[in-house]
Design the sequence.
């Protein structure tokens, strides 16, 4: 009595068919899953059909720039100076790039501050002035600490920072100011130390 055996490559073809079907459903699902209401009841966590959004939900199309200037003791303002310059990447940065953390912190704090401004919680009050609690938010204080820790003009009394947006390599997109901070007093320990010397 002869035993029936399956063709040797039938299992491999079935596996290829399974993966091809899965890939096709994944491609189709990327469009369908953009609307959470269209997700299936049995795959709410996207475990079977993944929902890949590498730059989602809204990819960035502008570069952020953090600038600062000082107000001197005579009331004059120094020119704006950009302090969020992104270092040009090299092959070494793939292995060692400790300054990336500082760049990312400034970027994330700026983005979070701009999101807070758009929130209803920080909308302008009836008298037209901004919500004062914005200056107590973590993103604002993070940027202020970063700005005040920089080197300032010897006669600087107060400092101020600005968040601007540009089109990056798109030179036709004019830079725009999106947030201007208040003027904040700098610590006087440096001045006291200089007087004591």
Sequence:
């Amino acid at each position: 009595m002869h035993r029936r055996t399956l063709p040797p490559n039938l299992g491999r073809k079935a596996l290829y068919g399974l993966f091809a079907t899965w890939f096709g459903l994944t491609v189709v699902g990327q469009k369908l899953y953009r609307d959470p209401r269209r997700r299936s009841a049995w795959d709410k966590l996207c475990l079977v059909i993944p929902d890949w959004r590498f730059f989602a939900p809204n990819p960035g199309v502008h570069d952020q720039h953090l600038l600062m200037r000082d107000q001197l003791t005579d009331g004059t303002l120094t020119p704006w100076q950009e302090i969020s310059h992104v270092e040009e990447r090299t092959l070494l940065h793939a292995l060692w790039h400790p300054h990336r953390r500082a760049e990312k912190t400034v970027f994330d704090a700026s983005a979070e501050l701009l999101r807070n401004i758009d929130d209803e919680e920080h909308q302008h009050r009836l008298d037209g002035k901004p919500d004062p609690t914005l200056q107590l938010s973590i993103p604002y204080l993070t940027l202020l600490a970063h700005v005040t820790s920089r080197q300032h003009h010897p006669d600087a009394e107060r400092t101020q920072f600005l968040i601007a947006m540009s089109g990056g390599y798109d030179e036709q997109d004019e830079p725009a100011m999106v947030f201007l901070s208040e003027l904040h007093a700098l610590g006087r320990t440096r001045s006291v130390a200089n007087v004591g010397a």
